[in-house]
Amino acid sequence: MDPVGVAAAPDAGPGPAWRSKCPWGAPNTTSISCSLADVMSEQLAKELQLEEENAAFPEVVAVAEGPFITGENIDTSSDLMLAQMLQMEFDREYDAQLRREEKKINGDSKVSISFENYRKVHPYDSDSSEDEVDWQDTRHDPYRADKPTTTPRRGFIGKGKDITTKHDEVVCGRKNTARMENFAPEFQVGDGIGMDLKLSNQVFNALKQHAYSEERRSARLHEKKEHSTAEKAVDPKTRLLLYKMVNAGMLETITGCISTGKESVVFHAYGGKSATEDKVIPPECAIKVFKTTLNEFKNRDKYIKDDYRFKDRFSKLNPRKIIRMWAEKEMHNLTRMQNAGIPCPQVVILKKHVLVMSFIGQDQVPAPKLKDVTLSSEDMKKAYYQILNMMQQLYKGCNLVHADLSEYNMLWHDGKVWLIDVSQSVEPTHPHGLEFLFRDCKNVSQFFQKGGVAEALNERELFNAVSGLNITADNEVDFQAEIEALEKMNEDHVQNHGKKLSMFSSDGDPPIYDE
Ligand code: ADP
Ligand code: MN
């Protein structure tokens, strides 16, 4: 009986009057005549049901005859079958990709590896003759061991002195070889799986360890790409941090990028509401995201490595943590400056490598850098004295040397100079602290002397004025040599008398939030 006939059978009952009125017309199938006894027969009912089921779920037949594969004679009336077809199609695509990978890896090599075990559709399901060969090759591989014997639950087979336990060396060795199939496809195990290899537990464990670490390594490589903070864009983790700040209402909106430097990206944001009463979030904020691309930071090691405040921590940290430390350092230094009354951004919050501070500027327009602004000679003179004063404050009041002070890191806002970018600032007793100070002095002197401020001290005078030291050398080379000698003396002193008391934890820093 054909399936259409079966489906039509129940409709065969009504007479010709009904059939002529039917809006879909008369079915063009001939009805099957059967007696009342037949209709009532349990035997017939069972047969009909069976055939109906077969029509709806023909998977048993399908695999053998291959309607999924050839794409012909497909009955699309069953959802299950459609789903199976789609799955099969998907699996076949997956396998095709796998086959390409396999080919790529094996190339012309005499020894090849097989991805057979990772296929979704097994060769006997497939109509490709190529697969047939593969299938036969591996199934009847002369080297292939018999299927590894499985030990029953009780842990041994055999009787008396023929007992073989699950710890048997040969059984274990074969099992271990077979277990290599579980390694990731990229992990090249050669055709060892096919041979009657007996891997000792020790060798297998070493291989397994290696396979896993390889997997992790490739995952990490992928991760690295994700993590690097590219030009203007931020990596997904940073984005999540920023998103959380907005979501918590702390920031209203992040409007855009103000600056992309080698080491940081700075964004502008409108401040939101603080979770705590005592803290007020400024109406406009600057978000400094320290770049997580590591190589740029290598040459900054010298600032932090020798900073005794970080000494104990530096050696134990991975590069990612060191970058967070830059952000942390900027936060602490800004707080010290704030406490000393030096005009600088106010810290709002630090989260990992993201530092939120008050925005110097207005309506999304950042205050210009001193190098970009044209000041009247009066303002220029005012700016100079202010900076001289700030440098002294920084040195004496904050126990800090800026270490990157120049017209690039000073903003002109509200008729005065604001200091920014203090992540690299160090204490004067840093092994190179005085050299950094001298460099700062050179930048400042040059800028103001070129800018026409007649009163501007030269770099050596400025250095002495800021540090309170009295280095008398009258040329740069000698001056530099004396500075280095002082640093050396200080270093020896620290060596002999132990570390200085850290001022690090006593400057009333804001809380560090972490998950
Ligand atoms: P970098 O290490 O990249 O030089 P900076 O801290 O100097 O980082 O910031 C880069 C630029 O971003 C600055 O030159 C300034 O234009 C802008 N900027 C940084 N912080 C602020 C701030 N709080 N308010 C306004 N602009 C800022
Ligand atoms: Mn800068």
CATH architecture name of the domain at 367-503: Orthogonal Bundle
| Radius of gyration from the alpha-carbon trace, in angstroms | 39 Å
- Number of H- or I-type helical stretches: 19
What sort of overall outline do the alpha carbons produce when their principal axes are compared? elongated
Name the poorly predicted regions.
1-15, 29-34, 58-75, 123-149, 223-231, 501-515
- Beta content comes to 5-15%
Q: What are the distinct ligands in this entry?
A: adenosine-5'-diphosphate, manganese (II) ion
CATH homologous superfamily (4th level) name of the domain at 367-503: Transferase(Phosphotransferase) domain 1
**Widest β-sheet, arrangement of strands:** 3-4-5-7-6-12
Q: Structural class per helix/strand content?
A: alpha+beta
EC number: 2.7.11.1
Family: Belongs to the protein kinase superfamily. RIO-type Ser/Thr kinase family.
Protein name: Serine/threonine-protein kinase RIO3
Subunit structure: Interacts with CASP10. Interacts with IRF3; RIOK3 probably mediates the interaction of TBK1 with IRF3. Associated with 40S pre-ribosomal particles.
